[in-house]
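ugh finaly. both done.
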Amino acid sequence: MRKIIFVILVLLVMSGTGLALETIKLGVVTIPGAAQNIVAEKFKALVEERSANAFNVKIFHSASIGNETEILQQIQMGTIQMGVITGGPFDTFDPIVRVINYPFLFKDYDQADEILDGPLGNEILESLETSGFKGLCFSENGFRNLTNNRHAVTVPDDVKGLKIRVMSSPLHKAIWQTLGANPTPMPWPIYTELEQGVIDGQENPLWVMEVYKFYEIQKYMTLTRHVYSPHIDVASLKWFNKLSSENQTLIKTAMKDAATFQRKDNRDKDAGRLALLKGKGMQIVETPDIDAFRTRVAGLKDMELYRDPKVHALLIKMLDAVK
C-alpha cells in the first residue's frame, strides 16, 4: 500500500511541475537525411534525454502533414507544436523575414552566423510573435545555387527565359523575375516536374542536389550563392506560453544546440557534395560573374516588398552591418 501511495505522489508531483509525459509534434517537409530532418532529429534526441523522456518528440517528415505554409498554419493554430521551416514561406505571415532572404546579403557563413545569432536576428525572431510563432533560433539550408537542364549559366543574361521553380515567396519570385527568368512557385518536392521538363531548373543548397538526386535530372549548376537560406526553428506561441519557465528554457536550449550541430554538419559536408556532383556528371560553373548578378538585383531594396517601415528599417541595418 505504501508503495502505491508513493507512486501516486510522484506522479502528482511530476504533473504539477510540468514534467508529465507530453508529445511534441514537429513538422518538416523534407525526407530523412535532409538538413531540416537533421535539426529535428537532433532536437528530439536532446529534449528526450534532457527531460528524462518527460517529452516525446514525434517528427512528421516528407510533407506528411502538408507543405511548409500549411505546417506554419497548423503551428499558428496549435494543432502541432513545432516546425523547422525554410525562411521563404514565412514572408506571407510576417514580411520582416524578407530581410534575411535579400539577395547577396551575406558574404560567407561566418557573417551569416554573426548577424543571425545577434541582435538583428533576434529582432526577426521576436517579430514572429505577432503572427503566433515563438521564434527559437536559426538553423540552415545554406547558400542557394542555380541548376537547370538547358545550358550553363555564367552571367545574368544566361538566365533569361529559364522556367525556375521558386518557393512560395514574393521575394524569391521577384529575384528571378529581375534576373529575367520565368519564376514558378511550386511546393516541394519537385523531382517529377524537373524530370518531365515542366520546369527547367530550380535553386537550392548543395545538400538538396545530393539528397534528392537532382544530378540525375539536372545537367548544369552555377554556384551563384545568391541567397543564404536559413531555417527558422519555431514553436506555437500558444503552446510555448503554457510551458513552465524551466521547460521553455529546455526547449529553447535544445533547439539552439540542435541548430549549432546541424549548421556545422552541413558546412563540413559541402566539399564532398561538390565532388560527388562533379563525379555524377553535373557541369558546374564555380566562378560566375557574381558582381553582375548583384548589380542586376540591387534595386530590390526599393521595391514594394520592402516599403513596410519596420521591414525597410531592418533591411538598412542589415545592409550596414554586412558592409
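ok and the 2nd:
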Amino acid sequence: MIEIINPGWPSLIVDGGRFGEAAVGVPSSSALDRYACRALQLLLGHAADAPVLEVMGTGFALRFHHAMTCAITGARVKATIDDRPVRPWMSFQADPGSLLRIQEVVEGLRYYIGFSGTMDLERVMNSFTTNLECGFGGYQGRILTAGDRLTFTEICEVERSAVPGIAIPPMHPPHRLRVVAGPERSFFTDESCNLFMDRDMRVVYDVSSQTNRTGIRLEGEPLCFRQGVERSIISEGILPGTVQIPGDGRPIIMLYERTIGGYARIALVVRADHDRLAHLKTGDPVLFEMIGIDEACQLWEAKSRSMDSLDKSIKRIK
C-alpha cells in the first residue's frame, strides 16, 4: 500500500486511455505523455495499459507501506526517497515507511510515478484512467488528496534499470509544434494563416494560465476571420491536438477530455508531437509549423519505431 501525503497540483490515475466510447460522449482521458508512460511501464515490468500516477507541481509526497520498486518519468524532477536523491527515468527501491518527495520540477510539467505492483482498481469501460468530468475511473473518479491510500493486489520483484539520456525527449521551451491544416483553415485571412504557421513568419504564442487537461489556451496575436464567415461551427467530433479558434481569435489546443467542439479548426497538431503537449506550462512560448500529411505520417512512423525499440534501449543496473 502507498499513502498520499501531499497530492501536488493535481495528481490522478491514468493509463493508455478509454477508447471506443466517443459516440456516447466519453473521451479517452488518457495519459498526456504516452511515451513517458510506456517507459515507466517497461522500467517496472508492466503491460502497456497499466495504470500510473500523473502529477504536476512540486511538493508531491507519498509514503510506502510495503517494499517495492518505483520509478518516475516524464518531466525532469529533483526527487528524494528518505532524503536521498533519486534520478527520474530510473527505477529505485523503496522500503516500508519510506517517503518519496518531489522537490522541484526542472524541465517539463507533468511527471509519472509507477510501482512494481498491480493497483487494486476497478476497470471502467475497459480502462483504469480517471474521467474527472463524469466522476468515474481511477481512484473514486477524482483527483488524489492527502490521506488517500492505494492498495496493490500483488507486488513483484523487478531488476533495477534506467532509460538512457539519448532516449529521453526534450521538454523545455520554446515548444515547436508541427501541424497539418484543419477543416476550417479557409475561415481565416491569408495573412493570419501565414503568421500562424509559415516557416519564416511564425508568430510566438504564450501558454495561458487557463490551461488544464481539457485544453491549452494560448495568448498572443489574435487570428483574423474572413469577412462574412461565422466564428463558430455546428459542433462536430474533434481529435486530440485539434487547434480551435474561438471568437477572440486566440488558439486553444484540445487534449483528451472532449469528443466534440464548436469552434473553427484551423489546424491539428501532428500525432508525433502530442506527448510534447503534456509539458506546456503557463508562460511557455509556442510556435506552430505547417507540414504536409506525408511528412506527418513519416514523423509518426519514426515515433512509433522509437517506442517499439524503447525496451531494447533500457539499461539494467547491476
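summary for the 2nd one i guess: The two ends are 27 Å apart (CA to CA).
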